[in-house]
C-alpha cells in the first residue's frame, strides 16, 4: 500500500501502552474491534471485521522511564521510506526511529515534525493495493486531526512531505481556522489541522478518529470500562457525531459516527 496512488494515505495505527491486555479489553468494548495475535513478535493486531487496521504492543519500560506516554501512532504510506525520511529531516523534522524493516511486511520510520507531533512513514512490501473508494467501513479510522503550535508551518511541512492538498476550511472564531485536507489528487477530505489552544495540555499531537455505529454507545462503553470522555458526544458540521476519549492507560483516541454516507 505504498505506491503513488496511496501516497499520503494513513494505512496503519499502533497503540503503544503499558498494559496491552487491558487495552484490548477496553478497545474491543468501545470500538468493537476484534484482535489477532501476530506470532512474529509480542504484538496483537486490531481487526475491523476481517481486515487488520493496526495493532498494540507494550510501551517499553525504558521509554516510560524516559517520559514516554501511552499513545496512538498513525502510519502514512509513501513510495520510499528512505527518501521521505530524508526529506522530513531537510524540512526540520527529528527522526526518532530510522528506516527499519518489518520482515515480509514493509519498512517504516518514525519522525517528530518541526512542532513536535509524532507520525510514522511506511512503505509496503509487495504489490500495491488500490486505495479504498467511498466511506470507510465501521471500525476503520476515518479522520486524522493535528493540533499544532504553528498551523502554517505544519501545513507547509506535510503538504511537501505527503502531497496533501487543502480542501475546505472552517473559521472557529477565537480558536482560528480549522483547515481540512486530503490526499493529493483524490478530491477527498480525511483530516484537519488547527492551532492548539492554550488550555489544551500536552505537546502538538495527532488524534485519530475510528468509525463506530453509535457514538453514544461508545461513550457509555468508555465510562463502563474505565476510560474518560473529554469532549462530546457532539455534532460536527455535516451532521456526524464525534467524541474524544482517554483510555484507562492514558492513550488519546476519538470516535466518529457517520450520519450520511453521501
Can you tell me about this structure?
- This protein is of the alpha+beta class and 262 residues long.
- It is built from five helices and 16 strands.
- The protein has helices at residues 20-30, 61-65, 81-90, 151-162, 215-224, and strands at 10-17, 34-38, 43-48, 51-58, 71-77, 94-102, 106-112, 118-124, 141-148, 165-171, 177-182, 191-195, 205-211, 228-235, 241-246, 252-257.
- An eight-stranded mixed β-sheet has the order 2-3-4-1-5-8-7-6.
Question: Can you tell me the CATH topology?
Answer: 2,3-Dihydroxybiphenyl 1,2-Dioxygenase, domain 1
Number of domains: 1
Q: Regarding CATH, which class?
A: Alpha Beta
CATH superfamily: 2,3-Dihydroxybiphenyl 1,2-Dioxygenase, domain 1
Total helical segments: 5
Strand order of the largest sheet: 2-3-4-1-5-8-7-6
Order of helices and strands: EHEEEHEHEEEEHEEEEHEEE
Binned, the helix content reads 10-25%
Strands, total number: 16
Low-confidence runs: none
Structural class: alpha+beta
In short:
By secondary structure, the chain is of the alpha+beta class. The protein has five helices and 16 strands.
Give keywords.
alpha+beta, 2,3-Dihydroxybiphenyl 1,2-Dioxygenase, domain 1, 18% helix, 42% strand
Topology:
Elements: E1 10-17, H1 20-30, E2 34-38, E3 43-48, E4 51-58, H2 61-65, E5 71-77, H3 81-90, E6 94-102, E7 106-112, E8 118-124, E9 141-148, H4 151-162, E10 165-171, E11 177-182, E12 191-195, E13 205-211, H5 215-224, E14 228-235, E15 241-246, E16 252-257
Parallel strand pairs: 1-4, 5-8, 9-12, 13-16
Antiparallel strand pairs: 1-5, 2-3, 3-4, 6-7, 7-8, 9-13, 10-11, 11-12, 14-15, 15-16
